Amino acid sequence: MNKERGNFGSRLGIVLATAGSAVGLGNVWRFPYMTGEDGGAAFILLYVGCILLLGIPGMVSEFIVGRRAQANAARAYDQLSGGRPWRLVGYLGILTSSIILGFYAVVAGWCLQYLYASLAGQVLGDTDYVSRYFTDFSTHPVKPVVWGVAFILLTHVVVIRGVRHGIERASKWLMPILLVLLVVLVVASCSLPGAMRGVEFLFKPDFSKVTGSVMLDALGQAFFSLSLGTACLCTYASYFSKETRLLHSAGEIALLDTFIAILAGLMIFPAAAAVGISPDSGPSLIFITLPNVFQQAFATVPAVAYVVSIMFYALLVFAALTSTISMHEIGTAFFTEEYHLPRSRSAWVITVAASLLCMLCAWSVGAFDSLRLMGVPLMDFCDLLTANVMLPLGGMLACLFVGWYIPREVVYDEFTNGGRCHLRYHRVFLFAVRYVCPICIMLVFLHQLGVV
Ligand code: PHE
To answer: Among 103, 226, 315, 326, which is best to mutate for testing ligand 1, by the most ligand atoms less than 8 A from CB?
Structure first.
């Protein structure tokens, strides 16, 4: 193993840091609003199908590439392909994760601002007040930019501390707190009067809502949520130990990630139904429903409402942070290793680029709505471009690379840890990455383009 590279210190650290990358605003913010827009339970079934059929094999493929090569994403593909253009898959991943970091930081910045606002007791009021508060804040020309960039700087500080002391330690603390808080809020939300309509929306499928674009959304959301297709998993896997069982870890992470997304749905929709907010109100959904939940659910003891709301936004900030760290780490590892820059200087390259994009994205959904590309605000454009095109493409190429290109012995060796585990699943895995994943992703793309 290359001595200069960091690596995760324990098995728990590996799972928590990778799960920390996977669990984030994708689960608590994006999943609920996509589910709301795409019709509820039927979307969730498609989403779970994508996780099982395509997500887990895709994750294992990225793990194999990263752990085998022990290098940043671009070099990993380069090394394993003997200098063929597969390196481009690594570049694609680095580009994708940096774009995601740019727009993700906008929402993470909103969370940071809401944390501050709950501390200052500013988000207390009726439903109208709370939704006006969100609009006023998000359309302000300066505030959302400042909070977004502050979030990127926070990420920067953790990343430059390195893999074990920064990333691993942060994840070990933050993940368990997140889970406990989520459960408290699910209970609060489900006990509001009228909450059952929300639960029904979440669990009663209406298949008439399923269209080509809903399928693409489910695929994009599955990949986004697992951090799959950005080479993020590949980069993290390069810090795994030789003992890590890749399939096992992928399964654990996918399970935890899906569980948290469903919990987030159970936190939002019953509450939205209770306060009469439409489930398809888009990206602002959690920022408008949740302050209401806190107030109504704990109306008799306002102090509890106050504390819970602070804890909740703190939690969102933590969840987002463990994800932004991973997006940032991909590019930082790349510049450090390829251009021999000190780690802190490489981190600045990503920080500056992402901050610029964050500023433009924040303006596009707020102060300057003329910042549009292909008819949608720049922020939505970046979101759709990455989730619905770049991630599935990156994931598909990772599967093709592992399934068809790298030597069978290498795949066997990594998948089974040298013949010590998962022997039974090896063939199933190969079949999935050679045929099932590429064909399914291709079909979804073609369907969306109107070809099939
Ligand atoms: N999976 C993260 C989330 O759900 C987002 C993410 C995407 C992180 C791509 C890294 C890479 O919030």
So the answer is: 326
Structure tokens at 174: 């933050």
Take atom 11 of ligand 1 and give the residue whose Cα is closest: 227
Q: What is the DSSP string of 80-128?
A: HHTTSTTHHHHHHHHHHHHHHHHHHHHHHHHHHHHHHHHHTTTT-S-HH
- Which of 104, 159, 316 has the most ligand 1 atoms within 8 A of CB, as the residue to mutate? 104
What is the block-wise mean pLDDT of the chain (452 residues), using blocks of 10 residues?
A: 54 79 93 92 96 97 96 92 90 95 97 95 85 92 97 94 71 80 89 91 89 91 95 90 93 95 93 84 83 80 86 88 92 92 94 98 90 92 93 96 95 96 94 96 85 72
Q: Rounded to whole angstroms, how far apart are CA atoms 55 and 35?
A: 18
Neighbours of 199 (CB within 10 A): 16
Instruction: Provide the sign of the torsion angle of the four alpha carbons 211, 214, 218, 223, taken in this order.
Output: positive
Measured in Å, residue 126 CA sits from the centre of ligand 1 at: 33
Cα angle, residue 295 at apex, residues 291 and 297 outer, rounded to 5°: 110
Helix axes 11-22, 246-275, angle to 10 degrees: 40
Nearest-CA residue for ligand 1 atom 9 is 227
Cβ–Cβ contacts within 10 Å for residue 127, how many? 16
Instruction: Supply the DSSP symbol for 284.
Output: G
Q: What is the pTM of this model?
A: 0.92
Provide residues with CB under 6 Å of ligand 1.
21-22, 24-27, 97, 100, 224-225, 227, 230, 232, 323, 326-327
